[in-house]
Amino acid sequence: MALASTYSATVEGVTAHSVTVEANVGPGLPGMHIVGLGDKAVGESRDRIRTAVANSGLPWPRTKIMVSLSPANLPKAGSQFDLPIALAVLASMDPVIERRLKGCLVVGELGLSGQLRRVDGILQIILDALHSVPLRTIEHIVIPAGNAQEAALVGHPSVRIAQSLTEAWQWLAGERELPGLEKVDHVVRSVPVADFRDVVGQEQERRAFEIAAAGAHHILMIGAPGSGKSMLAERLPSILPELSSQQVVEATAIHSISGESSGEVIGQAPFVAPHPSLSKAALIGGGSGIPRPGAVSHAHHGVLFLDEVSEIPADTLDGLRVPLEKGEVRLTRARREVVYPANFQLVMAANPCRCGVDVPEKCTCRPMERVNYLRNVSGPLRDRVDISLRTSSVGAVVGRADNEPSEAIAQRVLAARDRAKHRWEKAGVRAATNSRVAGATLRRHFPADDAGMAVIEGALANGDITQRGVDRILRLSWTIADLAGAERPSLEHVFDALELRASKERGVLV
């Protein structure tokens, strides 16, 4: 009998777990058996591996082959085990290569020709290999060439790039070298496709989006079809700050896990706009087997735009409450919990009623139909939205030409965020943006000036705003003050914040 082993990995949520791949070749009827709680893709790998080895001109043992993927109680999904299984089987017949393979972590899907194909979750796999205690002895990480661009974000001298099974085998045999990677330290932000330069007029809407970007506040827009709701939402990423290196890795990793990435790097704030007919699983995440990330996770460090929000079921929308509050999604399947990050900025848009006419005299809907049109947006969800905005009708913007580009707005947004970050760090507050600061902290240590607080307290006493509304007003006031370069929110800033939430506090969506 001959035994060989190597390491591989499986991804569960945003965590990669190391997997030991063992291949034993011994007497018995020819055939390969794989054990270790693998999914259908792992089971199908037997035929892919045999064909790929044959087409690569490598010898395949004509005897019984037993492959074990351990730990046995860990579910394993994906086709990344093709290459490590093939190499372990082949190495079992060569003691020299078997010893070298022990110090490697290998991932890669095999094509029938022996060429390697990219796999999902490569960033998590490499990070786990570099930081996991059981894998500290790994000398090399072998990945497909199709994953090279993603892997460069966490490039490491131990990473080796292989194009095919033949290349990997020849490298193990010492017959050739495999190229390595160079870490990408800076990601250049690509030019946004959508720019606020294209938005004509609509000063109120542009100002509201600037405030939203500066403080990471969520927005609800109500307006007639064609009033620019989608146009405004699509341009929000163009005024958000550039992603940090860590945020680029996190955003790219989510798309890699979901299998929606073709190897490209997510270099700027993602913009995710799912169809209103999406299910709760598509929005939050889920599915059979290991749950997959949903739209809220795909929008991590970016914007989630829900158009025609009135068409989305209430149960689906209520699934947003926890991600908005916690910045993550926890999905439980078969006694295992998977956690996905979901720190996004929410933008919702809807028509004023079913007929979509913004002029009451021309609306064909009955009064109660207009009142109940957005009942699917629950009170707790509405309360998490800081800014309510009615978009201007087409007639109100024709002839105006305020074509300030996104670049100019983004500079003000960045300056405001820097002011906020410096303030919260100096005060020991764990918050990256104003929208994340606890209400109690604002009320006790960071109130508006006396005149501003008097207005807020008066509105609370009159029942115009709720106690939670006070916190929202203070957060908005601080963002407006940061944009103005003020040291503290003044009466003017408080009035502006009240205007952005006034309709909400009266119980009316704009």
TrEMBL record:
Write down the superkingdom of origin: Bacteria
SUPFAM superfamilies, sorted: P-loop containing nucleoside triphosphate hydrolases, Ribosomal protein S5 domain 2-like
InterPro entries linked to this entry? AAA+_ATPase, CHLI-like, Mg_chelat-rel, Mg_chelat-rel_C, Mg_chelatse_chII-like_cat_dom, P-loop_NTPase, Ribosomal_Su5_D2-typ_SF, Ribsml_uS5_D2-typ_fold_subgr
- Identify the Pfam families for this entry: ChlI, Mg_chelatase, Mg_chelatase_C
Looking at the record, the residues that make up the AAA+ ATPase domain are 215-395
Q: Name one GO molecular function term.
A: ATP binding
Task: Identify the SMART domains for this entry.
Answer: AAA
Q: Which PANTHER family match?
A: COMPETENCE PROTEIN COMM (PTHR32039:SF7), MAGNESIUM-CHELATASE SUBUNIT CHLI (PTHR32039)
What protein family is recorded? Belongs to the Mg-chelatase subunits D/I family. ComM subfamily.
Query: What is this protein identified as?
Result: Mg chelatase-like protein
What is the native source organism of this protein? Answer: Corynebacterium genitalium ATCC 33030
